[in-house]
Amino acid sequence: MSKKNNSRAVGNAYERQIRKEFVGLGYDKCQTSRYASRENDDRGCDLCFCDPWNVQIKRWTSAPSYHEVLKSMPQDNNYNVIIHKRPNKGEVVVMDKQSFYEIIKMLKSNGII
Description:
Elements: H1 3-24, E1 31-32, H2 33-36, H3 38-42, E2 47-48, E3 53-59, H4 66-72, E4 79-86, E5 90-94, H5 97-109
Parallel strand pairs: 3-4
Antiparallel strand pairs: 1-2, 4-5
């Protein structure tokens, strides 16, 4: 298997892992966009049926250009997030500051925090 094909297989496996985690969080209809929606895949969303989130999943050895990835994602009412796993560095979730603050305000106004 070529390095490119191996990287793709590793990335696809990570997408399936994150999908299972979303199912475990209660998004029981969540699917990878490769399986459920070519249109969502083309729009830069790797998961479907997990509103209010647009999720782009990356498993790269270097940090992607988070700003560019977020900019390329749909500009709709969902929150755009990137879930990035970097070998031996862990996993992070990235979103723009305005969305993060909006979520904080919602949590505070609902007495959750």
